[in-house]
Amino acid sequence: MTRVLVTGGAGFVGSHVVDALLARGDDVRILDWLHPAAHAGRPGYLDRAAEFVHGDVRDGATVAAVLRDVDHVCHQAAMVGLGTDIGDIADYVAHNDLGTAVLLRELHQARFAGRLVLASSMVVYGEGRYECAEHGLVRPGPRNEADLEAGRFEPPCPACGAPLRARSVPEDAPVDPRNVYAATKCHQEHLAAAFGLQTGVPVTALRYHNVYGPRMPRDTPYAGVASIFASALAAGRAPRVFEDGGQLRDFVHVRDVARANVLALTAPAAVAGAFNVASGTPRSVGEMAAALHAASDGAAPAPVTTGEYRLGDVRHVFAAARRAAERLGFSASEPFDAGMAEFAAAALRAPAR
What is the spatial distance between Cα 193 and Cα 60, in angstroms, rounded to a whole number? Predict the structure, then answer.
């Protein structure tokens, strides 16, 4: 029987990975600190068939203990969120960079010879990929406040100022992290890749796009845009859609994300490298808000497009999904409308404080 350690296995994505591994008959060990900003204790949805260890991935002795007899490691533990407040930089670096470094050190000390799967994120790309009719593929810089204030949300061509067309982002696009969280996810990938080169351990970095689904946290720094909109609808409030609602993203169901992790851990041959984990179908933020509202049967007001903006937000970023399909055998299978209907009816995880 294969034994898999899932760090952060009590969390949103991690718990679904645990469920998927248990369904295969694997032996699963969870290491989770139960961060007090996200958990009030061990969550009730966590399957008792998995061994649970309450501990911090930054503690070397704890990590060394949970690595005993482990075949593969799925590293989900992280402090997540926008990371737009520079005052949070030390916490993000401690949880994400230092936590990953301690895990990698202890894997080396244990002479680990299995597979390592790392939860990464599409935020490493910054803005998505754009094409100018005259200059081809270009990389616009951060949008300026004057344009945003005037309602000019689309980034212009950096060479000629002409309008751009958004394109899907492949894994070989340059990384361009634009907030603290993004910088730590990028660093996690670099640390894990260096570890893989020096040890020969195959490392698979899964760049999650906009994940949604049951067990998503509510009203915490961990909440994504889908959770924020679902929370508003559940409270009888109209979801507030920033900018003009035309921001393009790739919304992928958490069960698909869990399946991608299982494929990376169990494929007949290890598949190293970075992979987008996404549906492959871009949708606007406004479209997602409308789908959630439709699934709520009109129990709350319709979404309101506010024109508000946040400095540092990117306009469009959505995935090229071919590499994951060809090399990992992963294609998303959860239908968007059904997934949004399920999500609208699901109870979100309440904050601990």
Answer: 20
Residues 6+ apart with CB under 8 A from 342: 213, 214
Q: If we measure between CA atoms, which residue out of 86, 301, 340, 88 comes closest to residue 212? A: 340
Q: What is the pLDDT of residues 83-100, one digit of tens each?
A: 557 888 999 999 999 999
Question: DSSP alpha helices (H): ranges in the chain?
Answer: 12-24, 60-66, 89-92, 99-109, 145-149, 180-199, 225-234, 254-266, 285-295, 322-323, 336-345
Residue in 174, 204, 179, 178 with CA at minimum distance from that of residue 189: 204
The Cα–Cα gap between 35 and 257 comes to 22
First-to-last alpha carbon distance for the chain, in angstroms, is 39
Give the pair of three-digit tokens for residue 5: 């350690």
Nearby residues of 325 by Cβ (< 8 Å), 6 or more positions away: 331
Per-residue pLDDT tens over the stretch 42-80: 999 999 999 999 999 999 999 999 999 999 999 999 998
Please, what's the b/e burial string for 135-157 (b: 16 or more CB within 10 A of its CB; e: otherwise)?
Answer: eeebebeebeeeebeeeebbbbb
With a CB cutoff of 8 Å and minimum separation 6, the contacts of 23 are none
118 CA to centre of own chain = 11
How many angstroms separate the CA atoms of 177 and 234, rounded? 33
